[in-house]
Amino acid sequence: MAGRAAILALFPVVGVLGYSDTVPIVAWSSKSSSTLNSLSPDLRYEDSLSIVGGILSPEDICSFDAVLVIDQPGLRSSDLRALPTSSGLSTILNTTPSSRQYPHVKRSTSFSLQDITESLARRCSSTLTNTSPADGPLDLTKNSKHVVCLNMPAMEGSPKLRKVAMLGYDQYLSSEIEKIDAAFTSHLVLYTGSPLEHYRRQLLPPSKFDSAYAPPDNSTLSDGGIFKRYQLFSTPLLVALLVVFFIIVPIIMMAVSALASLQSSVRLDAPKGYHAQEKKTQ
């Protein structure tokens, strides 16, 4: 029983080991993009810097009138997967001509969306805009090219809180993307996460946007999501499972067996001592 409890306690750890150093990357365009179409749907061995660079570095990226790069600290693939199929982002992805979705990408230590967007704006002679939901709606000048780096609030808290918060962010993002689509028929959107430890939300004063989407006490949420067609067992998770079941579990079972044998030995020794003493008294 003790061994079984110890094994069951390891499953939450497996999830952390498998996905703690990964970020999701989703990209799509309003027109058919040879860059997105040429990317392999399976880039499990590439890191975030390589994939983002593969999307934003090719020359044809400058053919877009607007490039929106969304950075959300702490974002997980499960946050996007939890979105209902009727959500704004899911609807946009289902109707876009070109898109790529990578749920678990190894996070690069040298990854900086700020540097990437600055370099892209210089290369394409575009206007660079750094903004956040607290700054209000996007206001982009028509008849000129734009690169927008949208810094979203960090994703933290329990799964229930994250799910409710994500619905609010989905509503905001889909609304802003629709405005961009109306003003710039040629645009590309890249949505990804970044390390949470660099952007601790409690260090920043709460904004009106945060309070507007405070999670309610009781909410009924639909199932479905952006990454729901992807399998949950990625390479990092499988490696973690192998380590647990072939190394950690045998060690735990040996320890439990040793403890059980010691307890059995103590129980067997006690009756022998008792009978010997009884015989001596007689």
Automatic annotation (TrEMBL):
**Bilayer topology term:** Single-pass type I membrane protein
- Where is it predominantly found? endoplasmic reticulum
> Could you tell me the keywords of this UniProt record?
Cell wall biogenesis/degradation, Endoplasmic reticulum, Membrane, Signal, Transmembrane, Transmembrane helix
Membrane found in the keyword field: yes
| Residues passing through the membrane, by range | 237-262
Provide a GO CC annotation, any one: endoplasmic reticulum membrane
The Gene Ontology biological process annotation of the record reads: (1->6)-beta-D-glucan biosynthetic process; cell wall organization; fungal-type cell wall biogenesis
Q: Which residues form a coiled coil?
A: none
- Membrane among keywords: yes
Q: Where in the cell is it found?
A: Endoplasmic reticulum membrane
- Signal sequence region: 1-18
What the record says about family reads: Belongs to the BIG1 family.
Q: What protein name is recorded for this chain?
A: Protein BIG1
Q: Which organism is it from?
A: Suillus luteus UH-Slu-Lm8-n1
